[in-house]
Specification:
heterodimer; A: 261 residues; alpha/beta; Rossmann fold; 6-stranded mixed β-sheet; 9 helices; 33% helix; globular; B: 335 residues; mainly alpha; two-stranded antiparallel sheet; transport (chain A); Iron complex transport system ATP-binding protein (chain A)
Amino acid sequence: MNAITVKNLRVTLNQELILNDINTVFPSNKITAILGPNGCGKSTLLKIISGFIHKYQGEVLLEEKSLAKIKAKQLAQKIAILPQNPVVPEDLTVEELVAYGRFPYKNIFQANNKDDAAITAWAMEQTSVYQLKKRQLISLSGGERQRAWIAMALCQQPDILMLDEPTTYLDVAHQLEVMQIVKKLNKDSGMTVIMVLHDINHARLYADNVIVLHDHEIFAQGQPEEILSVQLLEKVFNVEAIVYKNEQNSEEIIFPRALLR
Amino acid sequence: MKQIQNKKCGMPIALWRILILAVLTILLVISLLVSISQGAVHIPISDIIAAFSGNTGINSQILLNIRLPRALLTILVGMNLAVAGAILQAVMKNPLADPHIIGISSGAGIAGIFIMIVVPQYSFLITPVAFVGAMAAAISIYILAWKNGIKPLRIILAGVAVASFIGAGISALLILYSDRVHGALMWMVGGFAARSWVHVHLILPYTIIGIILAMLFTRHLNVLQLGDEIAKGLGMNVERIRIFLTAIAALLAASSVAVAGLLGFVGLIIPHTARLIIGSDYRFLLPASVLLGGAVVALSDTVARCAFAPLELPVGIFMAILGAPFFLFLLRRQL
């Protein structure tokens, strides 16, 4: 079963080619990572499959239905997306922020009720920010804040969670924390996750499926351990890499060692 | 806004906010009483009570036909401009967005002045025409500032450009029809001299409709504060909501321009002060702006009326004296 299917996608912006000939699927209940060098169109691809950008040629299907035909609020009940560096009003608390995740379920006359409060609490527990719920967002560390944003996305009760570079600006511990939350959500509740990543090793360790973009096209897609090779790093990122193997659990990591000229 | 803690004086934040709204309501009532009792003739509270219970003495006449309509008008105009400013600050993502500064009031103003001095026989059309002018100015600002989304700085620059462009148009009208400008001149600075029940009836429906609509969209305003991407991700049709909310703000601004002229800075000072005391949640910020806006404009007009008695200053001058330093304070703090 595929959560999202992309057929013959082509995007141009001001006559400049952004994405070309994209044919791919995002499988349900799996974690898919989108990788590629800066400016290859990763974020644009994410914005298209989340319904932010409507100007494109080709077809994007959510399950079997064309994404363009789904109403914004219905889409927000299926897909939750966390963009890069969102801004926050100075005095917003974690709980207030997370509760905004119920917005897609409400018309202008409806306020949040008890059920919404329960879902909000559940979402905060999933990302371990429940004990911070009365704190203001600006008073939190980068990692805590990111977990609060993920909780807001979960509060939408989506089938698909999309994250745009969720670990950027975080220290290593907080990066791992975010990755483990994502993995746990996927394992426990079967949530489909699609995320743009920069870290090759995060993709290798946490993703089930990888799409590598290069020069506005798909360079490779498949299982991370198969396609994220030394050769791929050479061709796509123009770096020389070495593979290290952890003797204890046979995990492999790729270390980009030097720029290729 | 760091001083807004989760608990204030040991009570939960929601209770605290309700308490603030109650205090602001009392402030508004006091402003109304001060406004109707002060003036060329001082009217004691006992006479105010007498007037409302059917007394027809001279003080009652002054009260019911002159003071009360004027006081109510100042309150309604204050409410309109404060809510218009609060809405614009969220939809334009700009702390300096005030209908006066960014030219929306000027748009309403040029339309109003045109009617007043060129085709005065159509003066009953002044509010709808002012609304069209305000909306045209707002749309021009969006078009000029739009480039892959809305950036606060471009909005303010486009707004200043639109405001000065329209300002030139207003000056041209005043010079071309210099024999008829006296009324228009007073109107340019914003004031409430010689306003009566007619004006109250003119603005009241817009105030009621505008504030009810704005209150229905407080959650949209809250979500818009998180940025366009988050708002879209939560299923909001951002462009449509933005145009709709701008139209509400333009309607509120235009109807107050139609009765009080180009009264500036209310839409800047009031929402920010309200934000400082009650926080940025629009469910509370909007009612706080309504109450505070009414109270501040009523009190300012009373001061402007009485400070140099028997000479009466237009309240617009008084608001500008307060507002310009406040604008600079915000500029240093937030941009």
